[in-house]
Amino acid sequence: MAVRSSHRSDTMFALSGVAVRLARKMGLHRDGTSLGLSPFETEMRRRLWWHIFLVDVRLSDVLGTKPSSDLFSGDVKRPLNVADEDLSPDMVDFPPEMNGISSIVICLMRCDIIESVRTLSSPFTDDVRLEILSSSEITLTQKDRMINELEDLLERKYLRYCDPTNSLHHFASIIARSSICQMKLFAHNPRRFANLGIKIPQSERDLIFTNATKQLEYVNLMRGNPIFDKFKWQIGTSKLWNSILYVLLEARKRRTGPEVERFWRLIGEVLSKFPQIFEKRTAPVYATIGKWTLEVWDDYLAATKTERLPEPSTPEFIDAIRRCRGPAGSSSKAEAPAESGLLATDPISYSNTQFLGQDGDLPGFAALATYDFSDLLSFETDPNEWERWDSAQLLL
């Protein structure tokens, strides 16, 4: 999990597959209680197996593939909700589980999420990616019921015990709430309306805008607060770009108003955490996000003039994006003022060479790398644009 910033996702997925097979060969998919092992060894095997399980699931989610079927043929139980110091090699009994948050809370919450996703529909019991929530074979009522039940479960088991002064507790609460937002976005994905050829109802627009905005707020909070620095290796960006796309779509639709003004402040703070946005030579996703951001900003300015509102001052990040999207031969990076923080470094970020991989351009992706994505409004009516967007994100 910690080396995702220096390895391509497909490489990590292959290595994860090797780990799964090695784990099965060692018998880690069998619970230690059925093998007559000690409580300590049983618990450590459970923790190792579930970590391997979660790594494979997260990587398959990023690549849009099913996780290894070998993960689902075993009887290993979930780890205990106990603190690390409660475990000892010489213990003869399992320690009692605690009510609340222990050092293994992140793993336990992800186990709860996986188990909830598996309950959606029996044909998909071996597909525990959040993407299954986009399936048209599962009704929206089923999806919403499962998400609401999971949200209540996480609240009762963990969130009610959160101490906001404890960095692990605070981080766990953000992960839990962010996961619920992400699941709602998958279940109510606006792309399904492009496939149906109908307009998105306002109630759906409001739900999408609210949860995508929350996602960006969580990203901004985690990447902007030093108390979360030690957890950054656990934070991915694979779902961030869809959230940005959703809020851009809605901001363009809403044009003006307090929510739109708040959006512009938030989007500036989020983009400042990703200096690749302000580079001239960058991945298609970053270049496209920059293009669409300028597109929506120009519409916002036009709307304020039409409605005879005071013209807003241009934010620093808008000027920075315009400079890096300038004519050929201009500087490869935007020269943003130092105090603006627009080009702050980020240890998790992917560099240009990283998104291309160790051997340069990815085979078969040359055309995509230079693809000029269409106008933002085309996403509301053209399902092919969503497919191109998904492909572009696989390069990260």
End-to-end Cα distance: 15 Å
Number of helices: 14
Assign a percent range to the helix content. 40-55%
Largest sheet: none
Sum up the structure in keywords.
396 residues, mainly alpha
Fold topology:
Blueprint: H1 9-25, H2 39-63, H3 105-118, H4 140-157, H5 167-187, H6 191-196, H7 202-224, H8 240-254, H9 258-271, H10 284-306, H11 316-324, H12 352-356, H13 366-369, H14 383-393
Helix pairs in contact: 1-2, 3-4, 3-5, 4-5, 5-7, 7-8, 7-9, 8-9, 8-10
Any overview of this molecule?
There is one protein chain. The protein has helices at residues 9-25, 39-63, 105-118, 140-157, 167-187, 191-196, 202-224, 240-254, 258-271, 284-306, 316-324, 352-356, 366-369, 383-393. The protein has a domain at 1-98. By secondary structure, the protein is mainly alpha-helical. 52% of the residues lie in helices and 0% in strands. The two termini are 15 Å apart. It contains 14 helices and no strands. It is elongated. α7 crosses α8 (240-254).
